[in-house]
Amino acid sequence: MKNKKRILRIVILSPLIVLGVAVIVLSIKYTPTYVYRLITMNVADVYDYRNFENHKIQGAKSTNKFISQPKEKYVESLFDDLVTKTGFNSFEEWAIKSQTTALIVIQRDTVIYEKYFNGFSRDSYFHSQSMAKSFISFLIGAAIDDDLIKSVDDPITKYIPELLERDPRFHKISIKHLLEMRSGLAYNTSLIPFTNIHAPWHDEAVGYYHPNVRKLLLEKVKITSEPGKDYQYNNYNTSYLGLIIERATNKSVSEYLEQKLWSKIMEYDALFSIDSKTSNFEYMPSRLIARAIDYARFGQLMLNEGSWYGNQIISKDWVLESTRENKSIPRDIYPKWFGTKEKRVYYNYQWWGHVNEDSTFHFYANGNLGQNIYIIPDKETVIVHTGKSLKYYSSDFDLWNVALLLN
User: pTM score, two decimals?
Assistant: First the structure.
């Protein structure tokens, strides 16, 4: 009887002991704050900015407003195939069930659709998720325009020289490698065995919840392959870009973003979540928070090749270089779903793109849970979609199909 009780106690206590040991090990390796955030916040969502300290970014004191000429039935009809495919009876039902929060369409400088769903409104904050990466790319271009960064071909050690003390190979990584996600930096993508759940040491989580990302970049991130050889979507690339902006400009990324973009054209203020008060470093890959209409304004700026009602906010050359497909990169380094034929996906300088069979193209900022700033140059159109789920919406393909139906 005693042996049975002892065995029962062992069976009950063993998982708790293992969990306790795991918490201690993770706390030592990544800090107790990291473990607490991982446990309490778990999977990232669009309300995470409420759990972090935020830098505030001021909008323009006055700025041009879009003309509004609604064509709601027409725009909603463009989603008919998606509504049918997902099994809903109407666009409104799809918008609610897909957890869409905003949909804005601007065509030829005119708002033809602007609606909000699921409790969101024009004044709501919308989490950018990885759309933030495209804003960081913009700032690299701005720093080049300001002659604070000489070239995308500069080695990152020109701005972060202490990396050389850890590994001389950092000198081979250029700013361009970071922009293209071809740096060769290590990125752990482990899952918990027999599940589809990120392991607690998965770098997606480590980078997101760590209270000192700058220290991670300077002391922990390693190199695993030759720069320029392979493509791997890796959030540390964007964080290093942010650190380079900080070093080159002697400003926080929020301050520089306000100076070069927000205070010039944006209608509302914005937020950029930081890792902690102590570190005070923005989480560059995904925690920019803004209004959906200001995402659309950024899209309109990029559509117009950096010009905003006659004012060149960023150089046309940078817009073209950063958003068009680089055909010199071998297609076989990308995942198979990118495609290799006339109709294909591309990635360049923290922007995504689509090439069509007729050689026209679209480019877009892309974020988890349904965030898109989708730009269609040949139809002079910008579409912004924001949401809280990918169950009935594909950030990579659904607006592509809508764009092809546009007049």
Answer: 0.94
